[in-house]
Amino acid sequence: MGHQKMLYLFGDQTFDVEPHMPKLLDAGNTSVVLRNFLDSVYDVLRLHIFQLPVNVRGELPRFTGIEDVMLWKQPKERSRCVPLDMAMTCLYQLGSFIISQTGKEYPKSGETCILGLCTGALAAVTIGGSRSLDELVPRAVEAVAIAFSVGSCVYDMKTRLLVSEEMSRPWSIMVAGPLASPAVCKFCEESTLPVTARPFISVYTPSGLAVSGPPSSLDELTSSLHFQGLKHKAKAVYAPYHAPHLYSAADIEDLIAPFETANWLHTLTPIPIMSSNGKWVEGSSFKDLLTVALESILLEPIDWNGILDGVRTSIGQLGEVPDWKVESFGSRADQLIYMALKQPAALGRSLTPRPSAERLSSDPGNVSKRAS
Description:
Layout: E1 5-10, H1 21-28, H2 32-50, H3 54-57, H4 66-69, H5 82-101, E2 112-116, H6 120-128, H7 133-161, E3 172-176, H8 180-190, E4 200-205, E5 208-212, H9 215-222, E6 232-235, H10 249-256, E7 273-274, H11 286-298, E8 302-303, H12 304-316, E9 324-329, H13 334-341
Parallel strand pairs: 1-2, 1-9, 2-7, 4-8
Antiparallel strand pairs: 3-5, 3-6, 4-5
């Protein structure tokens, strides 16, 4: 039997990490590596929070330590802080991974691949571009800071496009069925909305898609004749992502530039990383990997059909391996991968989900679906 193969899956902000933060914090009391990561993140976030607009900063509680930052959504009636939402999602994913690897050999290229969805792409490339926990921790701190900056970027775009009454409403809906895509296209063709205000497809799934846009535009879409008979529900996304009509490569360069260091350009051989369209990430430096991650967050839709096809193809090429395990961090999409992989039954592989003993989520098995 060959070595066990692992696919590490990192999710997006539709997975609420806040309820799981106390367990992460408790783990930091017994793990020196995790504690170092959390304390370093706090020092960085404190500086970034101070740079937020006064009106945004005034809505946040007073932070005196990482323990306070982990309660950033309290009380519940407080306005959402998109930069902190992104940063804390990234922190949770990377912190959970650090705990899962304590006492183990760091993942190897020949036995591992990584998939990151939206915000999870930052964790994916940071882990994939590192060779040890010692190398990972400082890069993980940078990744959380970059996530905060990306959140500031999308929040700024959101404020340009919305009136204040809409700021707390979701930016995305899930729509079921094969008629969803043509309905969105027809609506946009006939709409008089400006291009920046039109709904757009941000996620493709085997059973439907996610449509994003300003809340008032989504209201127009769902009440239109084109959407009659289509089932839809709001999605926990509160800013514009996967929107090539709103962002550009120049925005990505601007986001990376303040953090870039000389060692980001060093040649590396990363653990294989799958992008949110199912293709393998190509890059020979950490800067290359980060650029691809930000492209997948800001410019490209998530394509679950491409992802599942890509995973099937990868496993099909590994005839000597009896099975794969999917370890998810801040995602319930692992079951979607397992279900899809049952299709090539002729390969004779066992694809039974394995609950992680190290997983910090209280969600049993953390399995089901999700994307953004």
